[in-house]
C-alpha cells in the first residue's frame, strides 16, 4: 500500500510528487505517459530544412486548427495527441478541447510563459497565499526573465533570455496605453539540475534541446530515481473507491486492456481540470448533471511589425513568447507577442486566397516582421456554460464529457487594435478562436460548500463526500485571471501538498 497515489504527470502532478517525496512519503504516480519518439538533430532551425525533415508538418488530424488551439502541434510532437480520441471523448458544438495522455501532460507542448497572480486574483480564485510556493517552484523549474517584473513577481530568477528583433523593437516603441515587459519564461538561460540553457536554435516547437524548457517529463525523470517513488506508466485511471480509511484506485493497462488496481491512504488527482472532473464524476457516479467550468477566451491576432519589414531577423533566438503586455489599470486582458518564423509558413499559405506560388512569395517577404499577438481574457464564470459526464456507453473505460460553452462577450478588442497600431504592429486579421482554444482550463470541481454544486471540493482540495480523495490541479478555482495559469497551478499544488 502507498501513502499517496497521484494521477497524471502534468505540472501539478510532478510538483506534488516532489513535495511528498521530500517529506519521505511512499508515492505512486499513475499516468498513460506516452513518450516522444522523434529524435530531432541538434541543429539550428535554418539547417534543419531539408525534404527529409517531415517532423515540421502538422500531424494528420483535422481537429488541430488555429481556431481550436492546435496550431502548435507538429509531427515532432505527435505523441501529445496519441490515444486522446479513443479514451478522452468529448462532445460539444461550442467548445474545442486540447487534452493529452502524454508524459508531462499538456506541458509537453506548453509555451512556458510564467505569470504570478495578484493577491486579489488569488482570493477571487479561492487560492491561498502563494508567495513562498511561487519561489519554491521557481527553484525547481527554473524561470528566466527581468528581475523587476510586474507580471511575474518572484526573486528566484535566471537572467533574461536573448530577445529577438521583433521583441526588442516592440519594447522600444513609445506608447502610453500598455505596460510591456520582456516575457518571463520557464526556460533556462543558465544550467539547472542537469538541464542546459537554451541554445537559441529556434527549434522550441519541435524539440527541447538540453531540456532547457521546463516540461514535466524532465522532473519525472528525476523523481523516478527516488527509492520511495513508484511510476505506473501506460495506465489510464478509470475510477476510485473508498474502503474504510483507504482508497482503491482502478486503472486500465493500455497495452493489454487488463484492469488492475493500487491501494493508497490518500489519492491526489492531477489529471487536469477536464479529466479530473471526468474521473471524479465516473467514480461518484454523477452523470448527466451539469457542473461549472472556467476557460479564458482567446484571440489570435497576426500582425506585421512595420519596423522589421524587409530587414534580416535575429539568427539566434528562441521560438516562444518575447513580450508580455497589459493595458494600464486593466488586468482583464493579457497579451503575449511571438515571432512566427519557425512555425512553418505552409499553414499560412494554405489559408491565403492566392495561388500557392504567390502566397509563398508573399509570406516569405513578410516572415521576419510577422508577429502574432495572443490575447487572453479573464473568465469570471458568470456567462452560461456547463460540463457534465454522459455515461452513454457504460462499457467504455471513461464517460464522454459534454461541454456547453457559448463564446462570452469580451471587451476591449477595438482599443487593442488601435493601440497595437501605435506599437507599429499592423493587424492583418483577427482569429476569434473557439472557446477552449486558449488551453487554459479550470473550475470544474469548484471550492464550495457541500451541496453547492453536484461535485465540489473544500479549500484543502478534498472532494466533498470523500474522506481521502483530493484534486490538486486547477479544478477547484472559482475565477480564472487573464494571465497564464500554469505557474500558479504548480505553486498551488505545492501549497496544497505541503498542507496535506
Ligand atoms: C500548446 C500549449 C501552449 C500552452 N502555453 C502555456 C503558457 O505559455 N503558459 C501557461 O501558463 N500555460 C500554457 N499552457 C497550458 C498548460 O500546459 C496547462 O495549464 C498545464 O499543463 C495544466 O497542468 P495540469 O497539471 O493541471 O494538467 P495537464 O498538464 O493537463 O496534465 C494532466 C495529466 O493527467 C493525465 N491524465 C488525464 N486523465 C488521466 C487518467 N484517466 N488516467 C491517467 N492519467 C490521466 C494526463 O495524461 C496528464 O499527464 C499551454 C498548453 C498548450 C497545450
Molecular structure report:
With 500 residues, the chain is of the alpha/beta class. It has a single domain (2-499), classed as FAD/NAD(P)-binding domain (3-Layer(bba) Sandwich). It contains twelve helices and 19 strands. β6 (235-243) and β7 form a beta hairpin. The chain is globular and about 70 Å long. The mean pLDDT is 92. Bound molecules: flavin-adenine dinucleotide (FAD). Flavin-adenine dinucleotide is lined by residues 7-13, 30-32, 72, 98, 100-101, 105-107, 109-113, 236-237, 270-272, 275, 279, 439-440, 473-474, 484-486, 489.
Provide the descriptors you would attach to this structure in a database record:
single chain; 500 residues; alpha/beta; FAD/NAD(P)-binding domain; seven-stranded mixed sheet; 12 helices; 21% helix; binds flavin-adenine dinucleotide
What's the arrangement of secondary structure elements?
Elements: E1 2-7, H1 11-22, E2 27-31, H2 45-48, H3 84-87, E3 90-91, H4 119-124, H5 131-141, H6 165-172, E4 178-182, H7 216-223, E5 229-233, E6 235-243, E7 246-253, E8 258-269, H8 272-284, E9 294-295, E10 298-305, E11 323-327, E12 333-339, H9 346-351, H10 356-366, E13 370-377, E14 386-390, E15 400-404, H11 413-422, E16 425-427, E17 431-432, E18 441-442, E19 469-471, H12 486-499
Parallel strand pairs: 1-2, 1-8, 2-5, 3-15, 8-19
Antiparallel strand pairs: 4-11, 6-7, 7-8, 9-18, 10-13, 10-16, 10-17, 11-12, 12-13, 14-15
The chain binds flavin-adenine dinucleotide.
Flavin-adenine dinucleotide binds near residues 98, 105, 271, 275 and 484.
Summarize, please.
By secondary structure, the chain is of the alpha/beta class.
